[in-house]
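Task: complex structure prediction.
Instruction: return structure tokens for all chains below.
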Amino acid sequence: MDVRGRRTIKVPLENEKFKVDIPDAMRRESVGIGDREEFSVVRHYVKLSEMNFGADSGFYPLGSCTMKYNPKINDEIASLEGFRMIHPLQDSSEVQGALKLMYELSESLKKITGMDEITLQPLAGAGGEFTGLSIVRAYFECKKELDKRREVVVPDSAHGSNPASSHMAGFDVVEIPSRDDGTVDLEKFKEAVTERTAAFMITNPNTLGIFEDKIVEMANYAHSKGALLYYDGANLNGIMTKTTPAKMGFDIVHLNLHKTFSTPHGGGGPGAGPVGVVEKLKDFLPYPLVTFDGEKYSNDYIPPKTIGKVASFYGNFGVLVRAWTYIKMMGEEGLRDACETAVLNSNYMRKKIEQFMPVPGKTIKKHEFVASSVGSNMPKAGDIAKHLIDNGVHAPTIYFPLIVPEALMIEPTESATKTEMDTFIETVRQTLKLPHEAFEKEPVNLKVTRIDDVDASKNPKPTLRIARREERAPLQQTI
Amino acid sequence: MSSDLSELLNELNIRSIDELFSDIPESIRTKTLGLPNGMDEDEIRRVASEYSRMNKTVNQLHSFLGFGLYNHFVPAAVSNVVNRNEFLTAYTPYQAEISQGMMQALFEYQSLIGELLQMDAVNSSMYDVSTSLGEAARMSKTITGKDEFIVPKYISRNKRAVLDNYAKGADIRIKEVDFDENGMIDLESLKNNLTDNTAGVYAEYPNMFGIIDTNIPKIKETIGEDRIFVAGVNPISLGVLAPPGKFGADIAIGEGQVLGLGLNFGGPVVGIFGTKEQYIRKMPGKIMGITKDHNGKIAFSMILQTREQHIRRERAVTNMTSNQALMAVASAVYLSLLGDSGLRKIGEVNMGRTKELIEIVREFGVKLPYGDSPVFNEFLMRLNESKTFVSRIARKYNLVPGHILGKEYGFNDRNQVNIVTNVTERTTNSDFDAFKEFMREVA
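Output:
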């Protein structure tokens, strides 16, 4: 990191000599990160990119993450100067194209979810959850029921973000156990949902890839108790165009554009988590909302009982552009195809894998399923994962959902050939035959071998500032 | 249907794909959603290009808009690196050994930001600066067990609206500290606001009016060891301005958009978040750590995951799952490209050019409410004209003079316009010329 005297990238106007006048206490001479030339920087990051695996590198069956292919046209459209070089505080008359695009995306998402209004502002799926639950809070506050409605009910198979978001919005969490077939236990559900319940939060298909077919009954029951129904849209790919959250009885929906709508995950983000609501909750949405009067688009509508804002501006616009492009190009038929192929692939893999490994829950799965390596002498899920990545196949999500022991959560998405799936299945099958000692040394074909995350957390070194205190020399060689 | 797919149907012993959806009750199935047919690639190109041309870009305007999002120069190498498919299309690095590239890039981001802020612990990104502020308030409450959080009277309403929503869920009361006659934190007002319930105080430099608040170095001693000082910075100013670590900040946040991300109508951006080492276990977000693999080779790991939602559920420090990882990598590339000398230069150019424009404004005899206070690349000016008139003249010169502050900030006088004007290294002499023409009519 410490190469000095290098010619760094040229800053505009750098040849003009500016004298800056900064009060002494606020002045700084140097940051201390060194100088390097552009070619060194690019070579370095290209080298790093070669030590990474994306959905473009190969089959990526990471359960619950919907790692479908991201069409390259999405990125091209998002990089158009007319979308890239506009400022969010410009007058709406100067950004009509951007507002039109956002309006159209909202309209499409309304059709896909059956919701009456949509905000595009939340910057991630969990951001959407927090937005939705803030709306739940505002709704009951407005109805003067918040004092008694303190609870959000979630199944024990739920994504961890569901209880975390509920807590952040100020609610207590009540978890209900699932039945052996992986669906919600209706008896337990009815015990849990009471006049204290603000919302029931569920993903459908659930995290075992099973469609909760009693959803309408649950919705009616929750509504009869005065509670709202929240749909976690992480698994929308499994039902898209086949039914809608509105038809199932939901009041609030968040979507993950980076899952269902093909925007790249970027190694962890940016995502986008639009939130849709039914009529009676429209007034609580974050401001501003894009409106259209038949001639021009405006971006200054403030819902009368708004919860405020959940992001500095209007959302991850670059992500919205990509999702808009995807929906425009797919059309309804394309979206149906995507859903059907994803479900077909998932059931094919389920059928093959259940021949040698238990797959809990009902037979028919939607977009994903969970295998459990608990059979006699089977390796741990973590070992299977490491063996897979060592053999050029990305691992599934492991140890989730928490209700399945040694869980391998597999979601092939629609972007998988039979050959790719067969290779994966065969690699897993081979894994079961290996002696357990074989795993200890794996992976051997990657840049590093196994890393102990627990140990790394005992003595956390999140920056070079901290790491350098102990071991200065070797670090300089790596970075 | 391709032969591939019919083969799969055969393997499943089913004739139609509909059988796989038989678990969805008839009563809730949809026949059609009413979405139009799909377009081909060439058609979407035409349509999108038409929409994009309906926008007037900052390159087609004399734009002096900043106010939280800035028109800075983006080096070509930044976009090139983040468009590498292996970075762009990867998920969160849950499988460390096959994701070392991303993890190292994020670790480098944390390290570079750590140097920039002079803070020991940095996470691998928040969504944006506003959510960083919301999480900083929550973290202050967690650390101190107190439930009041003090913010300046003047911070952007966007930040404030996001903070208020976080505060509501966490049962935190927000109080305001006034500005003094120099447009800086009024230390007396701050003292008077402190109570036994004060968890933390947020203050920023440059602040909403662009002012380099010289009271910042006194804040930590004013509020004391037991309260959390959250410092807000503009990261691109830190090549010339002293870092928050120097002022005893317990948490430092900032909007990373300025570090090579461009405008994109406000997103994606990246929230910077750093803290002292002692608070690392209370920090939200994903954190990469440097460690060794079983062979003793340097490796990177996603550390302290037991703070997170997928393990701790409702007791997690935050609900955050995805973040803005790719934007963090972009910022790391940007910082690497600029280096010490580039960061210094860009700070000097921004300050120097802003000073030039201030001189121009002064020549027209215009009032600068905090005219004696040092600024970075933004300043507040007051015109004694109506907003309608000012906007009309601005349009005449194809110019946006800055962000106009309205009644949401207590500026109610209809015959007065308060504008926060921003200058960056991308502001050209032709922009300055247009500004002069504009001033000639409105001053």
